[in-house]
Amino acid sequence: MTEFDPSDKLSERASRVEEAIIIQMAQKARDLRANGLDVVSLTIGEPDFDTPRHICQAAKRAMDEGFTHYAPIAGFPELRSALAKKLKDENGLDYDASEIVLSNGAKQSITNAVFALIDPGDEVILLAPYWVAYEGIIEMADGVPKVLHAGIEDDFKVPASRIAEALGERTKLIILNTPNNPTGAVYTRQEMQAIADILAPHPRAFLLCDEIYEYILFEGTHTSFAALPGMRQRTITVNGFSKGFAMTGWRLGYAAAAAPVARAIAKVQGTFTAGANAFVQRAAIAALAGDRGDVEQMRLSYMRRRDLMLNALATIPGIKVAEPKGAFYMFADMGIYLGKTAGNRHIATAADLADWLLEKHLVATVPGSAFGNPNCIRLSFAASDEDIKTGLNRMAAGLAELE
Ligand SMILES: Cc1ncc(COP(=O)(O)O)c(C=O)c1O
Q: pTM score > 0.90 for this model?
């Protein structure tokens, strides 16, 4: 009897989704380290700070108090109310607590929303550079990603006029992320208003605003798309605790949306998982109510490291960057170095460049192809001063070798 081979019998859906390049790069860096090499990683997509102590203590207390059972699918009423207040006070949004659904991370909130809104063949407009996960989620839902590009000359922001050209009958959703991963770009209120103006007459398109980096903002104010006149009904506001509160491993995010959408989101969540972790939700209540000193300290540290990285990059000829206004990433345009060679190695794309920088110069970055732009690499400044300095010194030395 021949042995059963499971590898060619997987669903088409599972087979078509590729492993993210970010994960591949992080794995390569780990493999080199395991071989004793001193790799500096600038790939990290999470705070390098620990979660503030009072939040950890609240979680421990909650466990002792017995919050170890299933939580309601959409979340504890107290947390949903606290979030309704946060959205009102900080973002000028009017959501009832019943219109807020807690999930296992913002990523699940986005997944829920996509499954709640997208039918096979529906188009979802992505504004590149974008967080790579969106594409996989849309494909899993049999939606069709339609990618619009913005380059460094646009400050990495897709102008409303370009969205107007792409918006069609099949468009069901636009995903906007501000502050942005991987560029740190922040859409201004005026830029968002221009998008709202073109969206307003559209009969069926929603907009999902991913605001996960809201608290990591270096200048100006954060605008929530749902706060723009007339946009509340068609916006899904997604946010979470991962980045601002340094709680990536806790897995807690949320979506706020008009009641019918929020109900559909909760239904999707109830189908795939259950309510988010009970004691984590109790800790989140403490995070919202508690002192924000740590959140501010982390923001200031990222800002200082951003400047450190910008100064170091300024000394390397030919690299173009747009100063990040938020988040903790820089998207460096490496176009000038592409098409060059290092010995017998041809560097055709940013992916070749990132591989070579890692293998030969022991600095790990993420190629821009992971975010819809093949000329750039993403550098994370959620890293120590030491790693930023060493990483960029190595990059400079490596790039100087290219001919
Ligand atoms: C733009 C963006 N949205 C959402 C997430 C995911 O957040 P969470 O950890 O809450 O799932 C990330 C994480 O990298 C992100 O960069």
A: yes
